[in-house]
Every structure is written in structure tokens, then in C-alpha cells.
């Protein structure tokens, strides 16, 4: 209202799609008939509310973190080995030890997750690209077909040799008991469909990338955007597609485009403000209330604080996968051979493993 942005301002280039880059203009656009396809990229590392992403990618190698010592106890040659397919083949115990803590059902989706569901309910959600493996989007009620899990997830599991699917209930039992599930057919190891270092990215992820061209709005939530392929994805929407960054701080090339909107603050709070502006706050609260019972309680669970701490440490570790996603700059939809390499060190960390085959290095950890 009265922003006068139709005039040519000397210091600001004219917006392409939005009236202005503020909250009311964004809300107005979302409610207009021009905005029909919204693409979401929730990249929250804070699976527990209260944990910020402001520090960027946490240093899981720090000896101060409990995770480091936990992993040391598991006698891993280096922390990332827990997510390496080659190492997993030789020794799946560390992964299944961590999986017990990581397994979905322990955490409640956040308000930001319910916001994605709300966009779906409003008929506006085109796709949700996520790099979280915690399945919280699903658990907030976003339908499977709307979710593209770039790193796979715990939603399914299969034999790493013959690829036969493995039973959902049985794997839960194994994970809970910290025992190793094996394929009924070939006795191969069973692994959740999480993308490990040295594995291909999921086909549906690669195939869905062109969908970004259809987006009328891109919303990126909670990220350092230093992480590939997501940093690259945000640049693939058309220039007329406004991009919204909901994050603690400005990252990536956000604000480089005229129609970029920065909502800086905690995701849950910013999402709530946006919903207030849209008149959707009640809907949001209702959806979030529905997630109340999504936590599967175990009698023998550790107390919440312990779990929260450990889960955060694991989140830090999994971010190593994000750091190292090496996807071709513009992958053709047919290419399914893109793989995740093991982390490349930027800080001369000696124990950085080699991509894929790491037999030489990992052998050093084994008894000779
Ligand atoms: Zn098998």
C-alpha cells in the first residue's frame, strides 16, 4: 500500500513479480492466482526446536562433542565411515548403533513442517525437496508423492546386494534391539534407504529437478546453502519466480535477485508471521496440533534431554553428507549415476576418506 514501487527508484531495480519484497506483498502474491506452484526446500538441521543453524555446518570432528567420543567408542576409523557403504559392508554395527538414536518416531515435526502440509492442503505445493532423512515432512502429513528426499530416508529399506525390500516392522525391531537385519533371500545386509557416501542419489531426485522451472514461488527454510546440490537448486528457478529465504541469516545468493524475499529469524516464528499475514494461522495451529501424537514413546527411552542432545549430534554428523554431495552442475534427467563422494577436506583433515572405495584407509582400523 502506497509503497510507490511502480516508480523507478534509482537505487533499486524494478521487481518482476512481487509488489514489494516484504511480508504483506509476499502474502498477497501467495493468495493471488499467479502463485499456483510452490516448491519448498526445508533444510532444517534443527530437528529439535531450539537448535539453531546459525553456526553453519557443525564440526562433528570436535573432540568436545559427545558424538565424537561415541564414535570413537565404536572404533570407527573416522566419523564419516558410519555413513560409508564400503565400511558398512564390512562393519554395519556402528550404523545400527546410531540408527537406534536416529530412527524416526522420536521427534515431533516442527511448525515449519506443518506449514509445508498446509501449503499442500491449500493446493499450492508442487514439490518439497528435502535433504533431511528424518521423515518429519511425511510425519507432518505431506503426502509421499510430494516429497523428494535427496538423501533418501528411513521410510523404506532394502538388501544392499539383491535390493529386495525389507519389512518395515522387522527393521524397527532390529533397530530397537541394535541387531543387524539380513536379507531373507540372499542373507545380504539390509540398510535403510539413506544415501551413503559412495551411493547414487535417488532417481526421483534427479528426475524432479526440472520441476523447479515450473515453480511460481520457491521457499527455502533453514540452511547454510553452502551445501550441494541445494545451493545449486535454488538458482534453477526462473528469474520471475520469487525466492523466499526463511533463515536466521542471509545466505547464498539470496537478495541478488530483485524478487528475493528475506525473512530472517527462526523458521517456526517466521512461518507463523507469514501465516498470520495470510490469515492461515488457525489452520497452521490445527495441523501442528495433529502432530502431537507423532512421537512413538518407548518405556525404556532415555530422557528427552539426552535424546535431544544425541539427535543433534547425529544431525551434525549427517550434515557431512550434505557437505559432500557432488552433483553435476546441470544433471540430465536421465543421469542416475551421480554419487555422493566422501567429504573432501577443506581444512587438511587427515582422516578424510577417499570417495567410494576406501579399503586402504579403513583397513588401518582393523586388527592386522
Ligand atoms: Zn538380498
Automatic annotation (TrEMBL):
The keyword RNA-binding does not apply. Its cofactor is Zn(2+). Pfam families: SIR2. Residues 355-368 have a biased composition (Polar residues). It catalyses: N(6)-acetyl-L-lysyl-[protein] + NAD(+) + H2O = 2''-O-acetyl-ADP-D-ribose + nicotinamide + L-lysyl-[protein]. Residues 321-368 are annotated as: Disordered. Its EC number is 2.3.1.286. One of its GO terms (molecular function) is zinc ion binding. Belongs to the sirtuin family. Class I subfamily. This is NAD-dependent protein deacetylase. It comes from Agaricus bisporus var. burnettii (strain JB137-S8 / ATCC MYA-4627 / FGSC 10392) (White button mushroom).
